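To illustrate the input format used throughout this study, we show a single complete record. The first block contains the structure-token representation of the backbone; no residue identities are included at this stage. The design step must infer an amino acid for every position from geometry alone.
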């Protein structure tokens, strides 16, 4: 669908094209199937399963882009316009304005704008075609088209995205180097018992991790890219993938006068913003977690669950978002699921199996479990939430947590 085919008014407008938008559209359709719904996204593609952009598409040769397309418009009857940017939201007139010059009226509005990849803004050569991130289908296509066996790829950043894309690139035969300013890969999340193991696994698979490398700028003046650190020797690569994390897309909300707290769009239990006819879901929301209080979470489970609740309420339901999201990843032959806050700034209590291949690791604040890592331990997320609830109530604290969740 194009700009010129837009109606003047819709019952519901969704701004954003990720999984939160998909879940919201499905929820609206399920409750009010005849409602007029418009989805506006600046992505050139419709909603897809974004975790697969750094996972399945690289690791499973039988999976293609068509397999991760969520089919939102076809399944829900929503009108989907891609490649369009919403430039303004006016709560007083219930309108949104697009970069194509259209102004459209809504009954309720959902902001599901997500986040954009953080970049090295002042990098020399930072706009070079050999420098990319991995956030969208377009990013995936671009990177995949440039990588073949023995392509030398530098992944800058040793966090969640960096660790995943390194595995993905290695799977198709690229020569991968990871550059991180930290002492350990994923060291901000995992204790040494896990990170030491990961360092060995990456090395065994042929991925080299360079610690203490704080990138200053990129030099794209030669045939190969040079990564110049603040201190130490430069490195070189054919391609650079930036994995610095993401920036929440809250600009529309701020410009519309909606309340933004600690960088996230503030929502109540119904996922309404400070304007009762504007909802928000996904990465951008600051919500009340029933176990951890006010927080924001940049993971797909939160996007899916909050998108569904927002969509229901846009269509007249009175559902509440009282949910503690999980997140997950697979790293070569290891995998994990996690709930809550995983930060090595907290104390940790580690519960390993006998052969040290699986663990449950509790992240403690004053002896209270604020996060649980299920390392190679499956089907235990509901139990982890139960244990965190009991811990917050003083029923399980400190060493009493050991054995509360079966390992492996």
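Output of the design step:
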């Amino acid at each position: 669908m194009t700009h010129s085919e837009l109606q003047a008014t819709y019952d519901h407008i969704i701004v954003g094209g990720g999984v939160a938008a998909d879940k919201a559209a499905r929820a609206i359709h399920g409750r009010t199937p005849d409602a007029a719904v418009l989805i506006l996204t600046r992505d050139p593609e419709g909603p897809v399963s974004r975790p697969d952009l750094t996972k399945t598409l690289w690791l499973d040769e039988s999976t293609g882009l068509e397999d991760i397309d969520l089919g939102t418009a076809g399944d829900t009857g929503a009108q989907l316009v891609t490649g369009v940017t919403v430039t303004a939201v006016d709560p007083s007139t219930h309108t949104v304005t697009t970069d194509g010059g259209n102004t459209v009226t809504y009954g309720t509005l959902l902001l599901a704008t997500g986040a954009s990849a953080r970049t090295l803004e002042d990098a020399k050569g930072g706009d070079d075609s050999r420098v990319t991130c991995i956030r969208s289908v377009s990013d995936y296509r671009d990177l995949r088209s440039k990588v073949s066996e023995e392509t030398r790829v530098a992944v800058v950043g040793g966090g969640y995205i960096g660790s995943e894309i390194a595995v993905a690139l290695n799977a198709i035969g690229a020569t991968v180097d990871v550059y991180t300013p930290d002492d350990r890969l994923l060291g901000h999340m995992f204790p040494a018992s896990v990170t030491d193991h990961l360092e060995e696994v990456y090395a065994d698979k042929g991925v080299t991790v360079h610690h203490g490398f704080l990138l200053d700028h990129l030099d794209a003046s030669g045939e190969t890219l040079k990564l110049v650190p603040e201190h130490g020797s430069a490195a070189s690569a054919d391609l650079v993938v930036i994995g610095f994390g993401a920036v929440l897309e809250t600009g529309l909300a701020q410009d519309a006068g909606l309340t933004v707290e600690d960088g996230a769009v503030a929502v109540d239990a119904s996922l309404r913003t400070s304007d009762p006819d504007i909802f928000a879901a996904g990465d951008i929301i600051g919500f009340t977690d029933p176990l951890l209080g006010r927080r924001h979470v940049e993971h797909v489970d939160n996007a899916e669950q909050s998108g569904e609740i927002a969509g229901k309420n846009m269509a007249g339901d009175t559902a509440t978002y009282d949910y503690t999201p999980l997140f997950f990843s697979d790293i070569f032959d290891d995998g994990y699921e996690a709930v809550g806050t995983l930060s090595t700034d907290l104390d940790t209590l580690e519960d390993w199996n006998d052969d040290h291949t699986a663990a449950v690791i509790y992240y403690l604040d004053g002896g209270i479990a604020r996060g649980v890592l299920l390392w190679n331990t499956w089907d235990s997320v509901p139990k982890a939430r139960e244990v965190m609830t009991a811990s917050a109530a003083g029923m399980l604290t400190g060493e009493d947590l050991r054995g509360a969740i079966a390992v492996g």
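Structural context for interpreting the output: The chain has a mean pLDDT of 95. Residues 300-314 form the longest helix (15 residues).
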